[in-house]
Structure formats: C-alpha cells, structure tokens
Amino acid sequence: MKTVKIVGVPEHFNLPWQMCINNGEFEQVGIDLQWTDIPEGTGKMCQMLRDGETDIAVILTEGIIKDIVGGNPSAIVQVYVESPLIWGIHVGANSKYQTLADLENTKVAISRYGSGSHLMAYINAQNQNWNTNNLQFEIVNTIEGAVEALKNGTADYFMWERFMTKPLVDKGIFRRVADCPTPWPCFVIAVRNEFLEQNKQTISLILDIINNTTIEFKDIPSIDRTLSLKYHQQLEDIRAWISVTKWSQKRLDEKVLNKIQKQLFDLKIIDKIGSLSEIIKTV
C-alpha cells in the first residue's frame, strides 16, 4: 500500500475526495490516501508543500501559482474546479460600513499572507480602482478568527467563499456587502515535484479516480441534501452553489496561466513571470 498525503479546505468542493476515500476506491488500487482538512486555507497549504508535510494539495489557483513562482518546488497537474470562486465581501453585522465603496482604505482580515483572502483583496481593490498600496491587513488564520476580528474592530471586512460563509450571514454575525468572483478557474491540484517524479503512476491513478467521480458528481441522487447536511447549508443555497460550480478533468490552459500571472505581476504580487514548464507538469 502506497501512502500519499493530501490536503484541502473543509468545504463542499472537496466532498468528491471524501466520497472516494470512504468508498475505498484508492485502497482498491493500493493507495492509502490520507486526507487532512486545512481550515487556514491556501497559504498554510503552500507552506506544507514546501516543508514536505503533504504530497498533494487541492488549492486555490492564484495562491499556488504565486508560491511556485516564489520558489515552491511543486507543480500544478490539473484543474480541479473550472468555475470561478465567488468571494463574498463581509462586514460585521453591526458595522457602520454599508456599501463596498465604504471599505476603501479600511483594514481587511486575511487568513495569512499569500492566501486567497490576501490575494483577492488586491483583485477586489483593482476592480474598484482603489489604490492597492493603501491596503491594510489583519491576519486572522480562520473564519472563527475573522468573526472575532470583525466583532472587536481589529479588522473591517473579510473575503471568503460566499456559500460557506452564508450561515454566518443567516445568523446575523456577518453582513455581505458585495461579491467578487475570481477571473479564472478557482481550484487546482498541485503536487510536490520530488513526489511527482518518483510516483507518476500513483498520481495518474489518483487523478483517474477523482475525475471519474467529479464527472458524475452532480448526478448523484440527493447530492444536494447530502451537501446541505454535511456542511450545514440551506438546501436552496446548496442548489444555487451546485448550479454555478463546474469541476474539471483537464490541464490548466497556457492562456489562462498567462492571464493569471499577468494580473498578479501587474498588482506586484509576483515579481517575475514563471515558465509553463515550471508551473505545470504532465502526469
């Protein structure tokens, strides 16, 4: 049995992985796929890839591209979710800020530097024609940390996946003032280069199994109810999420990679453009 460590966020996007593991599909081909939830998100997962604490990460596209260009010895082997991530922009329920325009020059809560919540703050600022040099950050690590920061005023707004944050809006803890979709596919599968070189067949098998599940995922009977119960979401919200989410079984397109890198470079998030062969590897 080949042991493989994999990490991802504890969100509805990753239920296909849990289903394949629970069904014993990886074990059937001799793979002990050990999944670990990482609520801190992409910045933490990038560090785990760098440190060899995980072999694979299901990770935000812009975050891993930034980190690979910055020296992370890993590569993207496939797009996992083709559709954009819809980031909700949230303030505390009792915040004085009412509109997105009100948030210019205020402090944004982020899980950590290099995370999606950090990078998307720049994308949002650019979309609004704000001066990105004026962005201020408060590191909160997790959603729970963001709740505390917005409540006690150490941060003014927080960007996180809209549907996963909806229960906090429903409970009157957060108020959503706007949405900010990523202008590219949201999740990719990244593998440490050293592990990939030594285990190409294993990675190929893992991709085959997860791809067979994601192709049919939306057609699973009562999958909306399963997701609703597991992730404590309203059924109508889950159905809305399913309708806008599209999984992928393909490589990241070179044009899309160039578009992402150009935007990150223009925002001074990366200081150089990485090569296709450096960022994307074929299994």
Low-confidence sequence ranges: none
Mean pLDDT over the full residue set = 96
Q: How many domain units?
A: 2
The helix fraction, in percent, is 40-55%
**Text of the CATH class of the largest domain:** Alpha Beta
- The fraction of residues in strands falls at 15-25%
List keywords for this structure.
single chain; 10 strands; D-Maltodextrin-Binding Protein, domain 2; alpha/beta; 2 domains; 283 residues
Topology summary:
Elements: E1 2-8, H1 15-22, E2 31-37, H2 42-51, E3 56-60, H3 61-69, E4 74-81, E5 86-92, E6 107-110, H4 116-127, E7 136-139, H5 143-152, E8 157-161, H6 162-170, E9 174-181, E10 187-192, H7 193-198, H8 200-216, H9 223-230, H10 235-244, H11 254-266, H12 276-279
Parallel strand pairs: 1-2, 1-3, 6-7, 6-8
Antiparallel strand pairs: 3-10, 4-10, 5-8, 5-9
Helix pairs in contact: 9-10
